[in-house]
Amino acid sequence: MSCDEFKLVTSRKRGRKARRVDINRPHNKQGETDISVSVTDEIVKINHARTVVDESPFTEAVKNILQEALDVCGTKSVTEIVCYGLGHFTECVISRYQLALLLTLQERFKATVHAHDPVFYVSELNILKELGFFIIEENEEGKRLLSTTGTTLLYLPHCPKQLVNNFLWKNWGPDLSKCIIFGNSFSSAVDRSVLSDIELTAYLVKIQPYMKEFPIVNNFKFLDVFNDTSVHVFPENKLCEVLPSFWSENCVEPEYPDSDLELIIKKQ
Predict the structure, then answer these.
(1) pLDDT above 70 for 106
(2) How far apart are CA 166 and CA 202, in angstroms?
(3) 266 by DSSP, 3-state: which?
(4) Alpha-carbon distance 94 to 87, whole Å?
(5) Closest of 105, 190, 122 to residue 156, by C-alpha
(6) Calpha distance 225→229 (Å, rounded)
(7) Which of 54, 134, 135, 176 has CB atoms 3.0–4.6 Å from 234's, for a disulfide?
(8) What is the pTM of this model?
(9) Which residues, at least 6 apart from 148, have a Cβ–Cβ distance to it below 8 Å?
């Protein structure tokens, strides 16, 4: 299916996540390529998508669920948002709607937004800067330390599970209680995993008993934009139940087989 085609909402059954990786460019570095677009025209398109998103009951549900998640975290607001894997929002309408929701959350929380995708064009980087985003220059592969102050919202629309797995490894410890993850359902990812690729979700599997997941009903106008999406938190009282050895034993940096093309790795 093209990014410019949609499935209208006809049921509430959640579909599988979209795969958004160009297998011919597994080592991209953002800003290496560009297309000719008008920044002004693209922002008009984004604002139109923002109107559609803001009028959707899906967005109201997201706001309510995020408030529940903040209550679980024992905090009042999100201080920063980290976004990976947004994709080519100048070419893909799905990505544009996901960007529109991100802008709504940025405004709601008055939070700083840091963004990275190895596939971003130069023009897309300029547009994001115009929208007030901070660009993460290097491909962190999700291995980003949480801020030492406030609560971080990790915004991962339809991102590969390896990104989440890497993020969990990098922040493996009680400080996970300081983050909220918006992205593909952990439960679905673990349920779909088979023994042969368990390394792709090792840290998701370990943390699942100590996580609280808020599934989001997929009632957005187009089914393919936010399908299989949940909000995930790691309640401090649950993390306090584990023994110190839970965090220290077998805490090795994830490695993935060369045949795995979902995650765009850092260009050397």
Answers:
(1) yes
(2) 10
(3) coil
(4) 9
(5) 105
(6) 9
(7) 176
(8) 0.88
(9) none
266 Cβ neighbours under 8 A, 6+ residues apart? 27, 138, 139, 140, 141
DSSP state of 57: H
pLDDT in tens, 146-197: 998 899 999 999 999 999 999 999 999 999 999 999 999 998 888 777 655 6
User: Nearest to residue 164, comparing CAs of 249, 82, 99?
Assistant: 82
Find, among 115, 99, 111, the residue nearest to 42 by Cα. 99
81 close to 106: Cβ distance less than 8 angstroms: yes
CA distances from 39 to 50, 87, 103, 112 (A): 16, 17, 16, 21
Q: How far apart are the C-alpha atoms of 40 and 229, rounded to whole Å? A: 31
The span from the CA of 140 to the CA of 143, in Å, is 5
CB-based contact 144:179 (threshold 8 Å):
no
47, 49, 51, 56: CA torsion to nearest 10 = -160
**Which tokens belong to 156?**
């991962």
Q: Point out which residues pair with 221 in neighbouring strands.
A: none
Q: Is 84 exposed, middle or buried (0-12, 13-18, 19+ CB in 10 A)?
A: buried
Q: In 103-134, which positions are buried (b, 16+ CB within 10 angstroms) versus exposed (e)?
A: bbbbeebebbbbbbbbbbbebbbbbbeeeebe
The answer to whether residue 129 scores a pLDDT higher than 80 is: yes
pLDDT band at 17 (very low <50, low <70, confident <90, very high): very low
